């Protein structure tokens, strides 16, 4: 096994530095993503993923259960950027479980950054977890992704404000995935990048 293979396949049992009481790892400012690099592909599409430059996890949770066991799976040499893994947490989700999911996705994202990937912080959590989801995202970070839902425009408005507060910018680098016409129009009004997802498009 050469050094590159070792770097990508031997997942270190380590703790990354943290600035919060829950010890959720800090993301690296120097490894934040910029403009969206295409193709953008949802994790789990094996055939399409081989072509991807950016990978996201706004797919059914079961499709990326294995990413927790081996986050190096996406390091195929072609992927340049990734969105943090997004697992479903709701206002009814117990706090302890939600914090665990936030810890896991941020640890994996930091690991990817250490391996050279650029990372978008995932803002798509329920309002109950908004404050906790900010842990480990350093002030000045300006690379965000979220999932749009037509019936939850208020959530997108709140997530935009979170991105503004963290980045310090009125128009932060936040990309919105799906949600339909109502979300698309909100993105237009706020100079945000909107990406049509196939499932929403089928329902329109």
How is this structure best summarized?
The chain has 204 residues and is an alpha/beta fold. It has eight helices and seven strands; from the N terminus they run H-E-H-E-H-E-H-E-H-E-H-E-H-E-H.
What does this entry look like structurally?
By secondary structure, this protein is an alpha/beta fold. It has one domain. Helix content is 34%, strand content 12%. A seven-stranded parallel β-sheet has the order 1-2-3-4-5-6-7. The longest helix is centred in the middle third of the chain and has 20 residues. The protein is globular and about 45 Å long. The N terminus is likely disordered.
* Structural classification: alpha/beta
Strand residue content: 5-15%
For the termini, the CA-CA separation is 49 Å
Radius of gyration: 16 Å
The unreliable regions are 1-6
Instruction: Summarize the helix and strand pattern as letters.
Output: HEHEHEHEHEHEHEH
Largest sheet: 7 strands, parallel
Number of discrete helical segments: 8
Shape: globular
Mean pLDDT over all positions: 89
Number of strands: 7
**How many domains, in number, for the residues?**
1
Sheet with the most strands: spatial strand order: 1-2-3-4-5-6-7
Q: Oligomer, anyone? A: single chain
Q: What is the helix fraction of residues, given as a range?
A: 25-40%
């Amino acid at each position: 096994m050469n050094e590159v293979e070792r770097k990508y396949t031997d997942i270190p049992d380590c703790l990354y530095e943290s600035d919060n009481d829950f010890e959720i790892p800090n993301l690296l400012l120097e490894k934040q993503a910029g403009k969206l690099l295409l193709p953008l592909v949802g994790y789990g599409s094996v055939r399409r993923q081989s072509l991807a430059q950016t990978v996201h996890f706004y797919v059914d949770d079961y499709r990326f259960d294995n990413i927790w066991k081996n986050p190096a799976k996406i390091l195929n040499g072609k992927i340049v950027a990734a969105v943090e893994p997004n697992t479903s947490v709701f206002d009814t989700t117990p706090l302890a479980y939600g914090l665990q999911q936030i810890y896991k996705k941020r640890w994996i994202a930091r690991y990817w950054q250490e391996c050279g990937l650029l990372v978008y912080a995932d803002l798509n959590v329920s309002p109950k977890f908004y404050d906790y989801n900010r842990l480990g995202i350093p002030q000045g970070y300006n690379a965000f992704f979220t999932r749009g839902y037509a019936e939850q425009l208020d959530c997108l408005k709140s997530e935009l404000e979170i991105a503004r507060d963290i980045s310090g910018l009125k128009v932060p680098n936040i990309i919105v995935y799906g949600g339909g016409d109502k979300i698309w129009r909100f993105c237009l009004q706020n100079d945000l990048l909107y990406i049509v997802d196939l499932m929403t498009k089928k329902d329109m």
